[in-house]
Specification:
mainly beta, Phage tail protein beta-alpha-beta fold, 2 domains, seven-stranded mixed β-sheet, globular
């Protein structure tokens, strides 16, 4: 069948014409040529529906004054309507040719889809999700925009199997399959992490093209860390053509957000390109006294030094300031005390400031034989500054309102993390035994210093009564004894990965990493942890059942050094998290829809357990209490997922995860692990473009089963029942350049808690409304 006669479904968003033509050519597998002056500053209303190639091009060009003239099989040339040739001015400009090949860098911006085409987060091999033998979920630019997700917090809550526990306005903590997650930015390690436990800011989504979440142990690219997986925030890149947009968002609790995003060639040839994203975001809260202000900017320049060499440099800065809240206390037995969810229980003079800066340089060198070398270096700094810190202690007597105190107060506490991160690898094909295979050789890791300074904590407490407490009347916090502590850590390794084409249908991925890890006391210079030559293996087997479905099985693991000592004075072996996974993945509807089903078992072993055979003695080889590496936790479960375009007008992202974790060895053997994390979690997001209208409507649903948490002596138990949260959104395309988005979260205004402790369990956000106006230039 001729290309022009082929019928395909398209969902190309309104916007700059050249970007839309690039996507059309890729999906239709045709070539479109034109001179730059013809498309300069032109926009299209987009293309939604089922079209043959020629009719699709005509629809895409409506209102532009241009037409596409067929020059042969699969080749089209743009010209002004009713013109047989380009003008003299146009003729002196070189023609731009867009060829119909799908880009393999995974860029999601401008695709209008919830589907990820390619990813390399798991192995550095550029693979489709179907070719990747692990569970990986991508939140695309379109999904972020449709739901009005402005921070990493919002995005991670949309991923099935990732559990978020909010810690007030400062952020949250995240787990996957029962365990913590690592962080990456553009595939490079980010030691400050993704959650507030690591003191990081809420990474703003204005900077990202997409967010990739790899679930399960990911030590091949991480070295030391937690076995829950890796969150990779892939940032926006400069574009080949000029594009700019500005947006304003207003919302509940006096929220106002302004974002500007400009990308353009910086020289006429397009060999140097730049992009700048800047934002200002301010909001109060449903909780009294609470606010959060954010200012951020990201700038990047790419330069083609030669046809085979590209150099890039970027800087990203973000600062969040505000007042964090501590939740609402339960009664002494863990029952609801009936206090308003808007109430604040702390010092109204408490202040929190978090900022980070990332400087990055990168080199992309195309080599002979289809090989490629990529090398990047980043300098990262994260600062967490707390003034007038305080904590709520005691047990609340509902009848009298007494029993609680404001204690553990500190005038100032500051933590600073500085990191030098490197990532360099070469990848390409090689031939062996008559078949072509792929190989990656690389080095990555980071050296980072974590320093804390402060005025010291103040002994004593201030009793309060919950029925007459005034957060603004606690008085000044006195200075305590100055303190300073810190660690300096190196986590670096060499890795190799090969993808073996055993047959046309059977692919084997093998890999290994050799890591060196060392942690020192930054004040004394003494080494506290050291692991040398730690080997992390990886294996995955993928079998293509047919053109749509593949079956896979994989093994991955990760290690985490521990400082506790055994009876002979030696440091215990590292904790090891090993993930075994098997599943089926598919690419449906002409590869526009990804589906997956997987079962997994994640085993964390070598957990430290107190050695009761050795008496506690400060003079023994352990320095007190001795331990053995005998504890084990096993997490088992099921993951189901579907992401992409179910039709030309319908995007969908859905997932269900079941996780059951239990202590299999140690003093808690037979007990459930992570009772504060749900066993069942369901996520569903969808957006539908109403045919022949300017409206798109969508929504999302999050559902989890009940959870609880108890004191170690069972003096109290706090509970959160099964939870269903519903969000809705609607977009109106005012013109090809202007759109308005209305969004509401927690539609039913469900009241719910994030469970940490008796006096620290913040309420989740009530019903929230926002309206966003976006204009492209």
């Amino acid at each position: 069948m001729q290309a022009s006669a082929q019928s395909r479904q398209y969902n190309i968003a309104a916007g700059p014409l050249q970007s839309a033509l690039s996507r059309f050519a890729a999906e239709a597998q045709v070539t479109v040529s034109f001179v730059p002056a013809l498309v300069a500053d032109k926009h299209t209303g987009g293309l939604q529906g089922n079209y043959q190639t020629a009719s699709g091009l005509r629809q895409l060009l409506i209102g532009t004054g241009l037409e596409a003239v067929a020059q042969g099989e699969g080749i089209f040339v743009l010209q002004a309507q009713a013109a047989s040739a380009t003008s003299a001015d146009d003729a002196v400009l070189p023609a731009v040719t867009i060829t119909g090949q799908v880009m393999r860098d995974g860029t999601s911006e401008g695709t209008g889809s919830y589907q990820a085409r390619f990813t390399n987060t798991a192995t550095k091999l550029t693979l489709s999700p179907r070719e990747t033998p692990q569970t990986i979920t991508t939140i695309t630019r379109q999904q972020l925009d449709d739901a009005g997700m402005t921070s990493l917090d919002d995005a991670l809550k949309s991923v099935s199997g990732v559990f978020s526990q909010e810690q007030g306005s400062a952020g949250g903590t995240y787990t996957s399959r029962g365990f913590g997650l690592q962080a990456q930015v553009d595939g490079m390690s980010t030691p400050s992490g993704v959650d507030s436990g690591n003191r990081s800011v809420k990474f703003d989504n204005a900077f990202v093209d997409r967010i990739e979440v790899l679930q399960g142990a990911a030590g091949l690219m991480t070295g030391a860390g937690n076995p829950g997986g890796t969150v990779n925030m892939v940032r926006k890149r400069p574009t080949d053509t000029f594009q700019a947009q500005a947006e304003m968002q207003l919302g509940s609790w006096n929220a106002r957000r302004f974002v500007g995003d400009v990308s353009s060639p910086l020289v006429e040839s397009g060999r140097v390109r730049g992009r700048v994203v800047a934002l200002d975001d301010r909001s109060d809260s449903f909780t009294d006294y609470i606010f959060r202000n954010r200012s951020a900017v990201y700038g990047i320049v790419e330069a083609d030094l030669s046809p085979s060499t590209t150099l890039s440099a970027s800087v990203q800065y973000q600062k969040d300031t505000g007042l964090n809240h501590f939740g609402v206390p339960f009664a002494a037995d863990g029952s609801d005390a009936g206090l308003p969810r808007s109430s604040f229980w702390g010092d109204a003079n408490y202040r929190l400031a978090r900022d980070y800066t990332i400087y990055t340089i990168g080199l992309d060198q195309r080599l002979t034989g289809d090989w490629n070398l990529k090398a990047s270096y980043s300098r990262q700094k994260t600062l967490n500054e707390i003034d007038n810190f305080n904590a709520l202690t005691g047990s609340l007597d509902i009848a009298t309102g007494d029993g609680l105190s404001i204690s553990t107060r500190s005038r100032n506490n500051s933590t600073t993390m500085r990191a030098d991160t490197v990532d360099a690898y070469a990848s390409g094909p090689f031939n062996l035994l008559g078949r072509k295979h792929e190989l990656v050789l690389g080095l990555n890791g980071a050296t980072y210093e974590d320093e804390s300074t402060g005025t010291g904590y103040i002994a004593g407490s201030i009793p309060i009564n919950v029925y007459d407490f005034d957060p603004g009347a606690l008085g000044e916090v006195a200075n305590g004894t100055a303190s300073r502590s810190g660690t300096k850590t190196t986590n670096i390794g060499l890795y190799t990965v090969a993808r073996w084409n055993l047959t046309d249908s059977l692919k084997l991925i093998t890999g290994a990493r050799i890591s060196n890890y060392e942690s020192k006391n930054a004040v004394t210079g003494l080494t506290t942890l050291k692991e040398t030559g730690e080997i992390t293996p990886y294996a995955g087997l993928v079998y293509d059942i047919d053109d749509q479905y593949s079956a896979y099985v994989s093994y991955s693991d990760i290690f985490n050094p521990q400082s506790r000592k055994s009876a002979d004075g030696s440091v215990l072996d590292p904790v090891v998290g090993a993930n075994v996974e098997a599943g089926i993945k598919g690419e449906l509807l002409d590869k526009r829809l990804n589906v997956s089903a997987a079962v997994f078992q994640l085993e964390q072993s070598n957990l430290s357990v107190r050695d009761d055979s050795v008496p506690v003695d400060a003079g023994n080889a352990c320095g007190g209490t001795c331990y053995i590496a005998a504890g084990k936790v096993v997490s088992q479960g099921l993951d189901l997922g579907i992401n992409g375009q179910a039709s030309a007008n319908l995007n969908i992202a859905a997932g269900y995860t079941y996780v059951s974790a239990e202590y299999k060895a140690g003093p808690q053997k037979g007990q459930r692990y992570g009772v504060e994390q749900p066993r069942h979690s369901l996520r569903l997001a969808a957006n539908y473009k109403l045919p022949e209208t300017s409206w798109s409507v969508g929504g999302n649903v999050t559902a989890t089963n009940k959870i609880h948490r108890s004191a170690s002596n069972n003096a109290w138990t706090i509970r959160q029942g099964g939870l269903v949260l519903i969000g809705l959104n609607a977009r109106y395309q005012i013109s090809p350049k202007t759109q308005m988005l209305l969004a509401v979260s927690n539609l039913t205004d469900r009241s719910y808690r994030h469970l940490y402790s008796l006096n620290y369990s913040p309420y989740g956000e009530p019903r929230k409304l926002s309206v966003n106006l976006k204009h492209t230039f």
